[in-house]
Design brief:
By secondary structure, the chain is mostly helical. It has 18 helices and no strands. It has three domains: 60 residues, Orthogonal Bundle (434 Repressor (Amino-terminal Domain)), CATH 1.10.260.40; 108 residues, Tetratricopeptide repeat domain (Serine Threonine Protein Phosphatase 5, Tetratricopeptide repeat), CATH 1.25.40.10; 153 residues.
Amino acid sequence: MNLKLAENIRSFRKERGLTQEQLAEVLGVTTGAVHKWEARLSVPDLELIVEMADFFDTSVDVLLGYEMKDNRLDATVQRLREYRRNKNREGLSEAEKALKKYPHSFKIVHECATLYGGFGLESGNRAYLLRALELTEQSLPLLGQNADPEISEQTLYGKMAQIYIGLDETDKAVELWKAHNAGGVYSHKIGQILAMRDRGEEAAPFLSEAMAHIVGEVIYTVTGYMNVYANRGDFSSCQAVLRFGLDCFSGLRKGNKPNYLDKVSCALLTCLAWSQCMTGQQTEARASLKKAKALAAFFDNAPSYDESDILFIGRIEGASIHDDIGATAADVIQNLMDEFQNRELTALWESISEEEQE
């Protein structure tokens, strides 16, 4: 509790134009007593606080500088989050108060665990990390109260594993991640830790799976952003995110072999050409379409749907690649042309095709 009694006594006294001696005379105390109050060396008795509030025509709360906090559950959770975001460790004392008031609330226990975990990992404070681990374990039986779709049993065990890393208990962390690695969500962490411990052969399959997930996420993220920007009419950003995707995929070529990302890149190049047509960049659009056509021919000549033909990805047990964008890379381009129905784009495509026939 941060009271401002000393500052307020001084402020109210000066507003009334009183010296310390004069206020002391009003209250029937010594000048030294007033000096100590204002210097935070002592605190007046409750009766004197009430008398001063009455003399200064204010309330006791205002004189104390006390502001009632909203201590309802959701407000407390939000306040704890702000302490964490602002890296303010005063939140730890409030966390303990909240745990006493709401010991069976998932929101409170989980947020307090996150608070301790964050400060513990930053500072290497073992006591904080152990408290975070204890609270995360306590939150598991309360998970039925949770309404946040981003929190699950899997994510809680993942947090516990991260805390074990902070405690330098990597074997426990790896085993916990492995036990809760549904969908390969922790493969990147497992692979990294194993590789750092010179267990490269064991790490490689996990890193390979992680890279495959990353590639898939980049595909969905790039095409998602492309549609967001296109719907806004922000074709500059649309082109920027498409180029990012193209650069990313071109960097994953293994030697001079075709791979599935060539087929995806044909789609991105066609979308890039459409975006360039929308901004009057006819020369650039033609160049993008020519690249798409050449890449489609390269892929369709020896199509590969083997994930291990992509750099940094090995053969993944049970994996297979399927899509609905076209049977061939050439079909991908044509399907997008039909979808866009853009006259300038169609004219460019027909012109390129006629040039090749000649």
